[in-house]
């Protein structure tokens, strides 16, 4: 993927470097279900990543506005959600990422979090991309399920037009018929050749959108093998939704990783990154 301007290989977030020279992780529960769950998952992920020396960004949503069913749990909302995310950031000393769904949310969210994320479904919403970029905060732009990897250069160019070069680009699978996604590792390789750090969303990539009628399904067993393949193919970091008890999660539990499984998964991904990085860099 080529873009209109080149950028530095790394972005500083929360005092640490996130880039093409070190494996990193973005992880947390899909949505803010409760203060207790959010703090437990954030604290555990922080400690695991510190022990493995992996840069970490905590992720959770204050509002899941892009659900299929109106009955789906959406979260605590903007005000209460940002309050909780701000306390996690301050109390645990971790950088925080959350997604924004409309332009009017951008300013209040940017005042609290370290990274703004644009949802995959909204990858073509020019006003939203530009508004996020104009904050000059780091932004994580997710590739839409309906876009080819090379189309992302146009999306990234929108952010660059606002003068922002602090960009992450995330692959999250592509539509494959009805209620199904497929991960094409060619997309990972292509996106990783761009100037910005490339992230693989290991849990949304195994989602079965709308697969349960009023909710999405998922294939949790494929999270780790796809993550391993993506890191070997060129992903600089991995995005994962994590829950203490995914089978009881209020959102995306079917494709969320169990918290107790995280240490072994991250250790394997870090090791794969170390072994394959010189070959990935040679191909870029």
UniProtKB/TrEMBL annotation:
Pathway: Carbohydrate biosynthesis; 3-deoxy-D-manno-octulosonate biosynthesis; 3-deoxy-D-manno-octulosonate from D-ribulose 5-phosphate: step 2/3; Bacterial outer membrane biogenesis; lipopolysaccharide biosynthesis. Keywords: Cytoplasm, Lipopolysaccharide biosynthesis, Transferase. GO terms for molecular function: 3-deoxy-8-phosphooctulonate synthase activity. It is found in: Cytoplasm. It is an enzyme of class 2 (transferase). GO terms for cellular component: cytoplasm. SUPFAM superfamilies: Aldolase. It comes from the Bacteria. Its main location: cytoplasm. InterPro entries: Aldolase_TIM, DAHP1/KDSA, KDO8P_synthase. Residues 19-269 form the DAHP synthetase I/KDSA domain. Pfam families: DAHP_synth_1. The keyword 4Fe-4S does not apply. Belongs to the KdsA family. PANTHER family: PHOSPHO-2-DEHYDRO-3-DEOXYHEPTONATE ALDOLASE (PTHR21057). This is 2-dehydro-3-deoxyphosphooctonate aldolase. It comes from Desulfacinum hydrothermale DSM 13146.
């Amino acid at each position: 993927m080529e873009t209109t301007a080149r950028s530095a290989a790394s972005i500083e977030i929360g005092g640490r470097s996130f880039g093409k020279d070190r494996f990193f992780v973005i992880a947390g529960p899909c949505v803010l279900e409760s203060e207790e769950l959010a703090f437990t998952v954030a604290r555990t992920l922080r400690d695991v990543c510190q022990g493995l020396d992996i840069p970490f960004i905590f992720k959770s949503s204050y509002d899941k506005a892009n659900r299929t069913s109106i009955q789906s749990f959406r979260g605590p909302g903007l005000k209460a959600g940002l309050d909780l995310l701000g306390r996690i950031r301050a109390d645990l000393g971790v950088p925080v990422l959350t997604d924004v769904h409309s332009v009017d949310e951008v300013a209040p969210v940017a005042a609290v979090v370290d990274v703004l994320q644009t949802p995959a479904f909204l990858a073509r919403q020019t006003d939203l991309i530009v508004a996020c970029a104009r904050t000059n905060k780091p932004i994580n732009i997710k590739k839409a399920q309906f876009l080819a990897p090379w189309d992302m250069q146009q999306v990234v160019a929108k952010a660059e037009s606002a003068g922002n070069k602090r960009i992450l680009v995330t692959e999250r699978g592509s539509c494959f018929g009805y209620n199904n996604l497929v991960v094409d590792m060619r997309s990972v390789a292509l996106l990783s050749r761009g100037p910005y750090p490339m992230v693989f969303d290991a849990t949304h990539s195994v989602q079965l959108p709308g697969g349960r009628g009023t909710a999405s399904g998922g294939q949790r067993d494929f999270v780790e093998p796809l993550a391993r393949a993506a890191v070997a193919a060129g992903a600089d970091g991995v995005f994962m939704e994590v829950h203490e008890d995914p089978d009881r999660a209020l959102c995306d539990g079917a494709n969320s990783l169990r918290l107790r499984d995280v240490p072994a998964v991250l250790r394997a991904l870090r090791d794969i990154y170390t072994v394959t990085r010189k070959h990935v860099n040679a191909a870029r």
